Automatic annotation (TrEMBL), chain A:
Organism, scientific name: Drosophila rubida
Every CDC20/Fizzy WD40 domain range: 206-501
Protein name: Cell division cycle protein 20 homolog
Sequence similarity: Belongs to the WD repeat CDC20/Fizzy family.
GO biological process: anaphase-promoting complex-dependent catabolic process; cell division; positive regulation of anaphase-promoting complex-dependent catabolic process
Signal sequence residues: none
Pathway(s) where this gene product acts: Protein modification; protein ubiquitination
Region annotation Disordered: where it falls in the sequence: 56-92, 112-139
Classification of source organism: Eukaryota, Metazoa, Ecdysozoa, Arthropoda, Hexapoda
TrEMBL record, chain B:
Tagged with keyword Cell cycle: yes
Protein name: Mitotic spindle assembly checkpoint protein MAD2A
A Pfam family recorded for this sequence: HORMA
Species in which this protein is naturally found: Drosophila rubida
GO cellular component: kinetochore; mitotic spindle assembly checkpoint MAD1-MAD2 complex; nucleoplasm
Family recorded in the similarity comment: Belongs to the MAD2 family.
Amino acid sequence: MSQFNFVSDLQNALVMDGDTRGPAPRWKKKLEASMNGSANTTRSVLSVSYNTSFSGVQAASAKTPGKSSDAKAKKSMTTPSKTPGGGDRFIPNRAATNFELAHFLVTKEAANNSDDENDEPSSSNGNNNDNNVQASAHKSELQKLIAEAAQVGDSAKSGRILCYQNKAPAAPESHTNPLKVVYSLKTPISTKSGSRYIPTTSERILDAPDFINDYYLNLMDWSGDNIVAVALGNCVYLWNAASGSIEQLNEYEEGDYACALSWIQEGQILAIGNSTGAVELWDCSKVKRLRVMDGHSARVGSLAWNSYLVSSGSRDGTIIHHDVRSREHKLSSLSGHTQEVCGLKWSTDFKYLASGGNDNLVNVWSLGSGGVGTAPEPLHKFTEHQAAVRALAWCPWQTNTLASGGGTADRCIKFWNVHNGSLIKSVDSKSQVCSLLFSRHYKELISAHGFANNQLTIWKYPTMVKQADLTGHTSRVLQMAMSPDGSTVISAGADETLRLWNCFAPDPLAAKKVANVNSNAKKSVFRQSLR
Amino acid sequence: MSTAQATKNCITLKGSAQIIVEYLKYGINSILFQRGIYPAENFDNTQQYGLTILMSKDPKIMSFLQNVLTQTEEWLSKNMINKISMVITNAHTKEVLECWDFKMQAEAGDGVEAGDPSKQTSSKQLSRIQNEIRDVMRQISATVSYLPLLDCICTFDVMIHTLQNTEIPAQWNETGAVFIQNAQAVQLRSFSTGLQKVDTVVNYKMSS
């Protein structure tokens, strides 16, 4: 039997056409993968990237785009330098040899030959012949595609490549790419010392295992009752900042998770937006779920309270106002975004709602005519950000001022006057802006950043002079929340830690002064009454 | 009645070329800004497609693009272009660092008068086309997060891949194709005017 196997193997080996028995050559697998990939990409996927190392004649034969090929490329690049040019041996440079292209050209010739000799005796079967015709038709199609991809089609057929003679000028010599800040790691720049002392190390570090590193979620909030709610993995935990006790609020089933947490202004009601698109209300004093409000078709990544109203922003691009008191909870649905809504904040006087989305928009919605919810059309649409906007903050002392921060491609903190819809100021923070908070005690704001330094930066407002950089996180800072007394900021980082920063502690001297003024005033009242 | 409706909302090949050239104008300017090729001070905001797009205000760049795009529009309206490449090169070493390909594909349109391509029309809504373009523009500005840093003085050029029988106009040259060593390609979204489909692909050099 074995000799027959051998003969049939031999015959198979001789047949140039049809499928080869062994594993498909690399270029074939790659081409298939790339064709599948590109078929998917045409409509929706942003970047199914495929390796087209065969697109350049001189392209390196990147075996795998991993470390190994890098190492190989480096090696072959260094060898010629060791043996100076003009040696007596020809050492082929592997990196410069395009194996895939060479293989393609060789097989193309072979395939052409076998096309001519289709009625070869080794494939004498009638069925086989039919298959061969089909296979070769398929093959010629394939080769056309490869030729296109490899840009080596018949030179006669391909068209001309034309370009204009007067070229565009090069950038000025002094120009350095402003994007450098996105890519290069620098030690934090020494900041101007402000008028007050700001501790630059965290006061306390809490472990937050499984904290989801997702720019579009809002997974932490600090309540007026001094309780920090944080979602870790598929659980929600409550940390009592006063006593330090930890309580697990709930645990989602496998696959589901909390996407947004938001405390009501006063009391112990926590709203949770989950991955199924529902908004849940929890009474945290009793650890009991009060109600579930649906309405979204995708996960709810942002929430904002306005007394009995909770507004939810979802991945489906809509914002829904829920009236938590009534049975028909859905008041209105706003469709001002085309992509995921990841930032949502009511202004400090609750007259405006600001929303930021993955479509790089900031929308400002004004209070509705009935005083409930908002008008269905945005009052302002700010398109100036060049990346997703997640960081939003309203100024507590200028109620018409909104601060917004953009993602990696933007890196700017912009200030808006929502009364007239104008841009007040724009500052390049040189890093992704994940969160913004205004201080209540100082005319300052704090911003949370990602790469390169993963720092929190305190800025003087409105001059936007840097006051301090608070470093410590080893991965980007995703979320910030302020303590009810406004003195402490908690930050949640993708390094799975929560850090507490005592950066806005009221100045003891200033407090004393106020006390003095008060006591003086009281004295004078006393005197008056004595008279 | 019916003819009035038919003429109300249709795009001819000429109009389709105009839409595509407009996209190229905003797309190329956006790339120049987003990739940091020229100083940010030399750009101005404009509103287009419901987005803020930064346009170069350097007179040399503006006149270069104006000249190139006028010619492009003429060829496009005759369906003579296969591909337009925007090539970013190192100004000193002339090494090609990045190549943005805009691939053109003729489409059937409504197919009523398939015989004469210049009379073909498409009834696709302009707002729909512009929404498609907006999505591509957003993707262009999002590429910053994965494309490698262009850490040198750069310049750019636009190469137009036309049919073989195209006449070379005055002040134009024929050149060879460009290749990027160790390239990686990412395809962005496509848009179509109904008569022509445009694929946007960015090819970039893998950092070694």
